[in-house]
Design brief:
The chain is of the alpha/beta class. The protein contains ten helices and twelve strands. The strands form two sheets. Strands 1, 4, 5, 6, 7, 8, 9, 10, 11 and 12 form a ten-stranded mixed sheet that branches. Strands 2-3 form a two-stranded antiparallel sheet. The longest helix is centred in the N-terminal third of the chain and has 23 residues, at 2-24.
């Protein structure tokens, strides 16, 4: 009797595995749409943990976009090719010429007019970084006349800051590293960005700190060039499965991101 029960259980396991395979395996059309060159070119902003960072000790690459892109390539059965950019502006500009297949960026209605988005996979807190000895103690101290706030141009933090800052002056740099240099050189009094990037930057500036509180949230999603409808449905399915299976949470934890949470499932 135990043998019969074991055989039934084994057969059911094979059935469930087959169903799971059907749910995750892409059609030839979807694979072609997602990876038209035969490999998945994943655009990543280097130096941002929501995309990719390099471990200073081991040299290992890690980050939410990096991990999800690598897993997507594995599931559709093509090689994974990370394509690095210094800023989100450079990344999006390159995408207009077909230089990559998927990316992981902040969602906005304006960007949705130019790109196709999968469901949100992560929500990230905005925040401020101030140097050691700064007179800025709270977020309420930031928006005052004479305060200069460095922000990466053409980024979601730039859009948010431009809309909400009333008295302080935004000063823009082409990359997050550029905003850090402005803070170091005294050309800015604070940096505004997503908190995981700020915590990463604070490691390079002894005595600096990320202010408590959050002025807003930056929703993040996987994006594709328009015109690849054959792959969009699979991309949406992949993101929902990645949230349900704990892959997004694991990627957030592996990157050591503070101020980021998994987005709700749709």
């Amino acid at each position: 009797m135990r043998t019969i029960h074991w055989l039934i259980a084994a057969m059911l396991g094979l059935v469930f595995a087959a169903c799971a395979g059907i749910g995750t395996a892409p059609t030839a059309e979807a694979r072609q749409a997602l990876a038209p060159t035969g490999k998945l070119r994943v655009a990543l902003q280097l130096g941002s943990p929501h995309n990719v960072i390099r471990d200073s000790a081991s040299g290992e690459m890690k980050g939410v976009g990096y991990d999800l892109g690598k897993e997507l390539a594995r599931r559709i059965g093509v090689p994974f090719e990370p394509v690095m950019y210094p800023s989100v502006g450079a990344l999006l500009d390159a995408g207009k010429s077909g230089s990559w297949d998927v990316a992981f960026v902040g969602f906005s209605p304006a960007r949705a007019k130019e790109w196709d988005f999968a469901p949100l996979h992560m929500e990230v807190e905005f925040g401020y970084l101030v140097p050691a000895g700064s007179s800025i103690a709270t977020m309420a101290d930031v928006d005052r006349p004479g305060i200069r706030v460095a922000v990466q141009e053409k980024s979601q933090p730039d859009v948010f800051l431009s809309r909400t800052l009333k008295n302080a002056a935004p000063v823009r740099a082409p990359s997050l590293a550029g905003t850090l240099e402005m803070l170091k050189s005294g050309k800015a009094d604070a940096i505004f960005s997503i908190k995981p990037s700020l915590f990463e930057a604070s490691n390079q500036l002894p005595g600096s700190r990320v202010l408590d509180g959050r002025p807003g949230i930056d929703p993040h999603a996987m994006v594709m060039p328009k015109g690849r409808d054959g792959g969009l449905a699979y991309a949406r399915q992949f993101i929902e499965r990645a949230k349900a299976e704990g892959l997004v949470k694991a990627a957030i934890d592996r990157a050591g991101m503070r101020g980021a949470v998994v987005a709700a499932r749709e």
